[in-house]
Amino acid sequence: QVEAPGSYQQDPWAMTDEEKLQAVPLIHKEGNELYRQGKVQEAAAKYYDAIACLKNLQMKEQLGSPDWIKLDQKITPLLLNYCQCKLQCEEYYEVLDHCSSILNKYEDNVKAYFKRGKAHAAVWNVAEAQADFAKVLALDPSLRPVVSKELRSLEARLREKDAEDKIRFKGIFSQ
Fold first, then answer.
1. H/E element holding 150?
2. pLDDT at 148 over 90
């Protein structure tokens, strides 16, 4: 197969450190474009590739050193984009893991709390979802309309589930 000029991309494992660093913004941009086109799985793969490049570079640095931290700060937005894709693909436990890892390092990351709150809500961790959404509001009160919408959605799902459970378990103990 013949590729268009300029479209060839070297695999990250074959790149030098400098090439990896230069490739990350391009891969990130490609991921954003795929996401905008609704190609969520493909976007997630691009974000993953960019994260892998940076993690590979980060492994060569001393944990906590200025260079390590600088690379980690480049990883965080990519990881949040990756989590957004995973939310849409309903891979909630992966979102919970990644957002928690971000919050262990950057405890004021509003986007990580919001995405983790959505993932908690999706897997019926009601108290955890409410706590994360409360933290979002504490960090950024301007997000109240968005958080209120998520909380209303969670409450509606809870009411629906309770109604289903009442029907399902009706008469179970009266026999």
1. helix 144-169
2. yes
Rounded to an integer, what distance in angstroms lies between the CA atom of residue 35 and that of residue 46?
Answer: 10
Closest residue by Cα to residue 92 from 117, 64, 65: 117
Q: Measure the CA dihedral 95/146/30/21, to 10°.
A: -70
Residue where the block lists tokens 């609704």: 38
92-105 and 66-88 helices, crossing angle to 10°: 150
- 23 contacts 12 by C-beta, under 8 angstroms: yes
In this structure, is the dihedral angle defined by the CA atoms of residues 67, 93, 44 and 46, taken in order, positive or negative?
Answer: positive
Listed range (81-95, 125-139, 158-172) with the worst mean pLDDT: 158-172
Q: Is 45 exposed, middle or buried (0-12, 13-18, 19+ CB in 10 A)?
A: middle
CB atoms within 10 A of CB 87: 19
Confidence of residue 123 (pLDDT cuts 50, 70, 90): very high
